[in-house]
Write a structure and sequence with these properties.
Blueprint lengths: L2 H20 L3 H22 L5
Helix pairs in contact: 1-2
């Protein structure tokens, strides 16, 4: 698992969310964070070995 990729994904989202909050758009900030969290979950699940 490439945790650096997940870290970068989340840090980028946090930076964009902060910009959205500073710009007076907290709903957009929330959506940015939710989207990044879902992307990170998908990447993690795809990289995880399956149980049999």
């Amino acid at each position: 698992m490439n945790y650096q990729k997940l870290y970068n994904l989340m840090i980028d989202a946090v930076e964009k969310a902060i910009e959205a909050i500073d710009g007076g758009d907290p709903l957009n900030a929330k959506n940015i964070l939710i989207n990044a969290e879902q992307q990170a979950e998908d990447l993690y699940i795809e990289a995880s070995p399956t149980e049999e």
